[in-house]
Write a structure and sequence with these properties.
Blueprint (H helix, E strand, L loop, with lengths): L2 E2 L4 E2 L7 E2 L4 E6 L7 E3 L15 H13 L3 E9 L9 H15 L4 E8 L6 H10 L2 E5 L4 H5 L2 E3 L6 H13 L4 E7 L1 H4 L2 H10 L4 E6 L15 H17 L5 E2 H12 L3 E4 L2 E4 L9 E4 L4 E4 L18 E2 L12 H20 L11 H8 L8 H19 L5 H4 L1
Parallel strand pairs: 4-6, 4-15, 6-7, 7-8, 8-10, 10-11, 11-12
Antiparallel strand pairs: 1-2, 3-13, 5-9, 13-14, 15-16, 16-17
Length: 402
């Protein structure tokens, strides 16, 4: 039995130390690790692997979640960590049915797919509508920005295929949101970037960046953080002038934190701001073969000397909570929570973040117990500052809250 010093108790008892009780918010299932395109900033190590998750593995993952009491009132199943649409709609018809059989009586299930959109056709659109799937499209804006990074496996452009997929979604009335990956090239073109999403009628837009993770060793935003701040300020100005569309996810989240703060949880008699990436099982990732992990979903498939492959167990061999008694979980939890404690001591933004992103701490700083990262500054701090600066220059907050 592994002992963790901060707890003073076996980690097998750790689940009972949280209030409210630990619940899974996102169940991330890797239907397949394969992807049909080859993005230059991709961090996934197995995107050539054409394996698929068996229906038996889908069922076992759902049963473990139910039997461990991790399914709350609502659960979103995210099909990700590969291009989900390389598997046919018939696969998901069966998988959705299995999940409904095992979990439908104890939670309200919704499904989400993040796709590169190149394979979307009429059959997929009918499937999305039939199951009310939340569809996310990965597109980096206009063709010159997009095609510089998001290439076919033979090195060709993908933007035209993405636009065809978006056109099919529109023709069938399928709502979708978009996620763009910002690189240095986009930072000096905020209006060109915004114009494309506005013209496409995208209402909800997330702005990630090319993070240093896994196979992708460095970010093009390094050394260009002032340009990113200016980019956010301009995009916020454009969004407000357009009546709030597109809604930029990071800016909307920052406004919500300014207005309402973060929810909280209690652990070890102390109140902590909520951050799903540092809470056990809030984000639960199951690989195509049944291996599972928690905390940052990007741990899936990665390796690090101190944590091996981040795998905590396999759904065919044991439950999720059982794995909390393992050495692997003990090391991971000890260091992640040490990082949260360090952020609480040293970061002025802790109340608005809750401890950062463990995977980014590891790949940027070499330690899960580290504090501030480029990810923190890009995804949390600068959006927060952009909103605050805008509020300070407004006599009243109404334009931001419409």
């Amino acid at each position: 039995m592994v002992e963790v010093e901060q707890l003073g108790q076996p980690v097998s008892l750790l689940a009972a130390a949280f209030t409210p009780a630990l619940r899974t918010r996102l169940l991330i299932l890797q239907g397949t690790p394969f992807c049909n395109i080859d993005c230059r900033y991709c961090y996934l190590p197995e995107r050539n692997n054409k394996s698929r998750m068996s229906l038996q593995t889908v069922r076992r993952a759902a049963q473990r979640l139910r039997d461990d009491g991790l399914a709350g009132d609502e659960l979103t199943v995210v099909w990700h960590a590969g291009e989900p649409l390389v598997l046919p709609p018939s696969y998901y018809e069966a998988a959705f049915g299995v999940l409904a059989e095992e979990l439908g009586a104890c939670t309200r299930l919704t499904h989400s797919m993040q796709s590169n959109a190149t394979l979307i056709d009429d059959a997929w659109c009918r499937f999305f509508r039939r199951h009310a799937v939340a569809v996310g499209i990965s597109v980096d804006g206009p063709a010159p920005l997009h095609d510089a990074q998001r290439r076919t496996r033979s090195g060709g452009p993908t933007h035209a295929a993405v636009q065809r997929g978006i056109g099919r979604l529109r023709a069938h009335g399928v709502p979708f949101h978009a996620i763009a990956v910002l690189t240095h090239d986009a930072l000096h073109q905020p209006d060109v970037f915004f114009d494309w999403f506005e013209a496409e009628g995208v209402h909800d837009l997330g702005c990630n960046f090319d993070e240093a993770e896994g196979l992708h060793a460095g970010s093009s935003l390094e050394g260009h953080e002032d340009a990113h701040a200016a980019f956010l300020a301009r995009v916020l100005e454009r969004s407000l002038a357009a009546g709030g569309a597109p809604v930029v996810r990071e800016l909307a989240q920052a406004l919500g934190i300014v207005a309402r703060g973060l929810p909280s949880y209690r652990y070890q008699g102390q109140v902590w701001p909520d951050n799903a990436q540092v809470l056990p099982w809030a984000l639960l990732t199951v690989a195509h073969d049944g291996d599972f992990s928690t905390f940052s979903p990007e741990f899936l498939g990665q390796r690090w000397p101190a944590y091996a492959d981040f795998v905590l167990g396999n759904v065919h061999r044991g439950g999720f909570l059982d794995s909390m008694a393992s050495d692997a979980f003990g090391r991971l939890w000890r260091d992640i929570h040490a990082g949260v404690q360090a952020c609480a001591r040293h970061c002025a933004h802790f109340a608005y973040c809750g401890g950062g992103s463990p995977v980014n701490k590891l790949y940027e700083r070499g330690s899960l117990a580290a504090t501030e990262t480029l990810y923190c500054r890009t995804m949390v701090q600068r959006p927060f500052h952009a909103v605050l600066q805008r509020l300070e220059h407004e006599q009243q907050a109404e334009p931001l809250t419409r």
